[in-house]
Specification:
The complex is a heterotrimer. Chain A is mainly alpha-helical. Chain A is about 70% helix and about 5% strand. Chain A contains 13 helices and three strands, in the order βαββαααααααααααα. The radius of gyration of chain A is 25 Å and the shape is globular. The two termini of chain A are about 25 Å apart. Chain B is mostly helical. Chain B has twelve helices and one strand. The C terminus of chain B is likely disordered. Chain C is of the alpha+beta class. Chain C is about 25% helix and about 35% strand. In chain C, the strands form four sheets. In chain C, strands 6-7-8-3-9-10 form a six-stranded mixed sheet, with helices on both faces. In chain C, β12 and β13 form a beta hairpin. In chain C, α2 packs parallel to α4. At the A-B interface, β1, α1, α3, α4 and α5 of A face α1, α4, β1, α5 and α6 of B.
Chain lengths: ~300, ~290, ~375
């Protein structure tokens, strides 16, 4: 009611306007006190480190302790096929895994949101979330137990006589995608359920009543309504997949290096921070670009998507 | 399509079967991990050689040759301790900052509020690895500078637990802020006015009315912080020093070849995490959860 | 006793501006000790702002507010001897009933035992003994209402402010609470300042009612006076139902004036305020002031007489009425039907005669017509 307007930097409490005829000086002090933690947090841990990361990525060592600035670290990336192929592969597999996660999760989310009611619904929902509170390493360990040559699937197939001898199922892209889809499932299912929950049953009934068939209802009613959830889920899943380390490291083979692993190698193993920073920035740009494109194409906003 | 619309029983069965297969897929890896924690074999794989609790309780390895169970493995136990320490500190700072942020975002009207809100969301869209390396090189650069020019050694800016805590806090704070802000947004300002009207000072009104209202979300944010801190790997990997938290220790162990002790550890972690997660559902804090 | 002369609440020329809009405009009034005073007005008329200024949640742009004769302009809300029952009651959901009621006393630093005693006593007084351990969400709407009042009463305020507290209740409970609230106020004797947009609440409960419109008080009077002798056309239109005509004054003699309403109905009316020949005016006649009859002879003695036909019957039990269409007026006249039974067989289309007295036909200058 009494918003004095945003021109007044000193805190005019937005919703507690009222009254609260405190001394203006005191209100201002409170405002700065409250502003301090986020400024320190975002300044020292997010903004400045990323600026510094960018500066570092432009640095080149010409002699011990002598540096110049230039784009060599980036040029080096594009000149070495191993590097850019890895990023390209990582991004491609991530998009593929995201799409697969969506296709697998959608019927499940729909079933929980629309087919189930009351206690059963809550129970199944909780059951679907439970595995994801377990560490990613543990989940990956599980897939190792299942997929490796001496693992459960190989042995089961053997004892059923479906294969002549044990097979190694680890160490290929299919194994990586299996693991990535599994790891990401929660972040797709939850936003999908949230968006489908808000779809009024009577809309589906009306469409049916007006002669709509299953596929038409899905295409014209359900998917448009669930779009915010689809976008939100896909964005989060893509980002997590692209930035994943554990799953590709354990489920992938020697030839399937993930881009995050390259960054790790540069920073921790080879101690080439300049090149590593350039790689980090390229990953950040790839990630932001795909997210931005996704948001633009579907006309959603980041704040709405995340929160 | 929905229960009120008739479908063929074949369609119903197919759909239900799909859901069943999905849940098998969901739980199969976890069951596999759990089962091999009890296999009486050096390797967590088939064939099944009988049931044993050695991987939890054996202390033979300590005194000579033989198995070392989880609870007698000093390395693993101490990294559980490290993780716990980190998680508690990260949680305390995150919930505190999340609460003050909620008041800042929901109660103050200032220029740049929208920008601040968007910047606060960034940590969630930056890959954890990048968060890690950016903090690593930033802090090292500062530490190097201080050392070169002033000859001061600042150990907490070098890889180690303080940096791990900073790295985890950098994105967990966002989640805590989102959860607590969402709750504060639902707070009816009339309640605080009522407290003032009944004679409370501003401080007392917030302390006796607003904070108790926020308590479920603070507990919820706290549990989520503990879970995320315990399980964080990507950021931690880049910032870790000599004291390894549990995820780093498991990572190293898995790279060296898996042992059933890791299965035993996984099972214990699963139970601990599931307990916390169920606790979270009871606080109701999860309803306000952002992501 | 001098004490009775000092009003519990007094405002002098209180003004509140929000930017360019004037929410409260030069309001002056007094509330006597022990009174049930209501401020009645449509939403957006400034009544909530006025109440919030009295509670201390807003500061007036100019003017003064005095409680028991001393200005409270510089007193923060938590130090004013005024307590408020909020629109949505604002009971603290995280505390039980006893903790809610004891909240104010705890802030005063009173010992636990004393608080317990006081809480029990006040619960008794509002007719809810033993409810202390209940949770807020276990209470019914009416009980919550009484707890919210008890939470204020325990502090023994000079003045109790009530901000449309019945608004959230369903119709039946609201009717019941109206009576309870009036009885409670009479019993405890605390001065009540009640704001509402519901005229029935104001009329039933209050000793004095102020009708507020566009930030100003249109009239402060007893409910009876407001109803029968409204001072402005806004009050006449807002309080109670009325048949309404507009027209130009043709002749004036004393208070009595004659004119033709729009459509050409001849009307004899009583002037309120200065009215002269040729002025545009608004005329109000209450449905129950109109006498209805099937025989022309029975309306002979009325100042205003007209014949018409029943257009439609609005049966509503004891509040049934009929809409009568008359020649020369495109709008129907609403007439309250006497409940003596003689009109129970009234049919649509039937011919009837209407009559009403000039002193129940109030005429206001048209320029001060409210929204």
């Amino acid at each position: 009611m009494t918003e004095i307007g945003s021109s007044d930097l000193g805190a005019t409490p937005a919703k507690l306007p009222t009254s609260v005829r405190r001394q203006p000086g005191v209100a201002r002090l409170w405002f700065y006190l409250l502003l301090l933690p986020p400024v320190l947090w975002l300044g020292l841990l997010i903004i400045l480190p990323h600026i510094q990361l960018f500066i570092l990525s432009l640095k080149e060592k010409v002699a011990p302790r002598v540096y110049t600035y230039g784009l060599d670290n980036y040029i080096g990336f594009f000149n070495e096929p191993l590097y850019w192929m890895t990023l390209l592969r990582t991004a491609t597999i991530s998009i593929l895994a995201t799409a697969l996660t969506l296709v697998i999760a959608f019927p499940v989310a729909y079933y929980i949101a629309k087919m189930l009611r009351g206690r059963t619904k809550n129970l199944i929902f909780v059951l679907a979330l439970l595995p994801f509170w377990v560490s990613e390493l543990v989940r990956t360990l599980g897939w190792i137990m299942l997929l490796r040559e001496t693992g459960i699937i190989s042995n089961t197939l053997l004892s059923l006589g479906l294969i002549p001898e044990r097979v190694e199922l680890l160490g290929n892209d299919a194994a990586i995608i299996t693991g990535l889809v599994y790891t990401s499932m929660l972040f797709m299912v939850v936003p999908l359920i949230n968006s489908l929950d808000s779809l009024d049953d009577s809309l589906i009934e009306a469409a049916y009543d007006l002669g709509g068939k299953g596929v038409a209802i899905l295409r014209e009613i359900i998917i448009p309504h669930a779009m915010p959830g689809i976008v939100a889920g896909s964005i989060v899943v893509f980002m997590l997949t692209l930035g994943n380390i554990v799953t590709p490291a354990f489920l992938g083979g020697k030839n399937s290096i993930w881009f995050t692993d390259q960054i790790y190698q540069k920073f921790i193993v080879r101690f080439n921070w300049e090149q590593g920073s350039a790689f980090g920035f390229l990953l950040l740009i790839t990630s932001s670009l795909v997210v931005w494109l996704g948001l633009k194409l579907t006309r959603q906003s980041l704040a709405k998507t995340i929160t | 399509m929905i229960p009120s619309i008739p479908r063929s029983s074949a369609a119903k069965f197919t759909y239900a079967a799909y859901i069943f297969v999905f849940f098998v897929y969901l739980f199969a890896p976890l069951i596999a991990v759990s089962v091999f924690a009890f296999n009486d074999s050096q390797f967590p794989s088939l064939p099944w050689r009988g049931f044993t609790l050695d991987w939890f309780l054996s202390s033979a390895g300590r005194t000579g040759v033989g198995r070392t169970g989880l609870f007698f493995d000093n390395g693993l136990m101490s990294s559980i301790g490290t993780s716990t320490k980190v998680a508690i500190i990260v949680t305390l700072i995150s919930v505190t900052v999340g609460t003050t942020n909620a008041f800042l975002l929901e109660r103050m009207n200032f220029r740049g509020r929208g920008i601040l809100y968007v910047v606060m969301l960034w940590p969630l869209v930056i890959p954890g690895v990048i968060l890690g390396v950016s903090i690593l090189q930033f802090m090292s650069t500062i530490a190097n500078g201080l050392e070169d020019f002033f000859n001061i050694r600042i150990d907490f800016m070098r890889p180690g637990l303080p940096l791990v805590i900073a790295g985890q806090f950098s994105f967990i704070a966002t989640i805590a802020t989102l959860i607590i802000s969402a709750r504060l947004r639902k707070f009816d300002i009339e309640l605080e006015e009522a407290a003032l009207n009944l004679g409370a000072s501003h401080w007392m009104a917030i302390w006796t009315v607003t904070l108790p209202f926020l308590r479920p979300s603070m507990i919820g944010a706290g549990i989520i912080s503990i879970l995320m801190s315990f399980e964080n790997f990507n950021t931690t990997l880049m910032l870790v020093g000599s004291d390894a938290p549990i995820t780093i220790r498991v990572f190293t162990a898995m790279r060296d070849g898996v042992s059933p002790v890791i299965n035993a550890l996984s099972l214990v972690m699963m139970f601990a995490m599931a307990t916390l997660a169920i606790g979270l559902m009871f606080t109701g804090g999860s309803k306000d959860q952002g992501k | 006793m001098n004490d009775t002369q000092i009003p519990d609440l007094e405002t002098t020329d209180v003004v509140k501006n929000f930017g360019a809009t004037v929410a409260v405009d030069q309001v002056n009034f007094e509330v006597k000790k022990g009174a049930f005073f209501s401020i009645l007005g449509p939403s957006g008329c400034g009544k909530t702002t006025l109440m919030r200024m009295i509670a201390g949640f807003e500061g007036p742009s100019s003017g003064d507010i005095l409680i028991r004769g001393s200005s409270v302009i510089d007193v923060p809300p938590n130090r004013r001897p005024v307590n408020m029952v909020f629109q949505h009651l604002a009971l603290f959901p995280m505390m039980n009933v006893a903790k809610n009621i004891g909240y104010g006393l705890r802030r005063r630093g009173i010992s636990g035992k004393e608080i317990d005693r006081a809480v029990d006593a006040v619960l008794e007084r509002v007719g809810l003994p033993g409810m202390g351990p209940r949770k807020i969400d276990q209470l019914s709407g009416g009980q919550k209402q009484r707890i919210a009042i008890a939470r204020c009463l325990i502090l023994e305020p000079t003045l109790l402010l009530l901000d449309e507290p019945l608004g959230a209740l369903d119709l039946k409970l609201r009717e019941q609470m109206k009576i309870e609230l009036k009885q409670l106020q009479a019993e405890i004797g605390t001065t009540f300042l009640y704001i509402t947009h519901d005229q029935s609440e104001a009329l039933v409960m209050s000793d004095q009612v102020a009708v507020m419109n566009h930030g100003r008080f249109e009239q402060v009077a007893t409910p009876q006076e407001l109803y029968y002798r409204p001072n402005t056309s806004f009050v006449a239109g807002f309080v109670g139902d009325a048949n309404r005509w507009s027209g130009k004054v043709e002749t004036v003699s004393g208070d009595e004036l004659r004119l033709h309403g729009q459509g050409g109905v001849a009307i004899v009316a009583t002037a309120v305020g200065g009215i002269s020949v040729g002025m545009d005016v608004e005329i109000f006649v209450r449905p129950e002031s109109v006498f209805i009859s099937r025989a022309e002879a029975e309306i002979a003695e009325f100042d205003n007489k007209i014949e018409g036909a029943v257009d439609s019957l609005l049966f509503d039990g004891g509040r049934s009425s009929a809409l009568i269409s008359v020649a020369g007026d495109d709008r129907d006249i609403s007439v309250a039907l006497p409940q003596t039974g003689q009109f129970s067989n009234l049919q649509a289309g039937e011919k009837v005669y209407l009559g009403w007295q000039a002193d129940q036909t109030r005429c206001f200058a048209a320029n001060n017509v409210g929204s």
